[in-house]
Design brief:
By secondary structure, the protein is α+β, with helices and mostly antiparallel strands. Helices cover 48% and strands 19% of the residues. It contains six helices and four strands; from the N terminus they run αββαββαααα. The protein has a four-stranded antiparallel sheet. A hairpin with a 7-residue loop joins strand 1 and strand 2. Helix 5 packs antiparallel against helix 6. It is elongated. The N and C termini lie far apart (52 Å).
Length: 159
């Protein structure tokens, strides 16, 4: 794709998008939580066409209409999000810190498929710190939830 398109997409992310890292409980995960990564774009029904263009241009992700009528285009998963963020990194302005920080964490996580409990806890702490960069709602799950899970399973030494 032409670099000017990536620049346009970066500007669109700066204005109407979000880069999200969050902790999600997962009973089927070794450490009880998933670190979920998402890039989201939002538009009213009138702006749906630009989201459809994004979806077709980028070539992956999911487009859907929410119950409140807002259209949402999401890219989810460590590798797809990392690929996308690397492409827009040179052009992003307002969300540069979010993009750079997310790239660093995602690269580290992808390079370490079997982290130690301590390393996973440190990643959870970085996710929690990352969330302060966004205008996020109250966090449902925190690093303390992860710590309690890991301690309860005997995976961390007692304090």
């Amino acid at each position: 794709m032409d670099e000017s398109r990536w620049a346009y997409i970066a500007g669109f992310l700066d204005g109407d998008g979000s880069v999200i890292l969050q902790l999600k409980p997962r009973a089927d995960y070794r450490y009880g939580f998933q670190i979920k990564s998402t890039v989201s774009f939002f538009q009213s029904a009138q702006g749906k066409d630009v989201l459809l263009w994004l979806y077709k241009t980028i070539g992956y992700g999911r487009l859907r209409q929410r119950n409140d009528g807002i259209w949402e285009y999401n890219i989810e998963g460590w590798q797809p999000v990392l690929h996308f963020l690397r492409k827009i990194r040179p052009y992003v302005v307002a969300k540069e810190k979010q993009v750079v920080t997310a790239i660093e964490l995602l690269e580290e996580m992808l390079q370490t498929p079997k982290p130690t409990p301590e390393q996973f806890l440190e990643w959870a702490q970085r996710v929690e710190s990352y969330q302060t960069l966004n205008y996020s709602k109250k966090r449902k799950y925190t690093v303390e939830d992860v710590r309690r899970f890991l301690s309860g399973k005997g995976l961390l030494p007692s304090p």
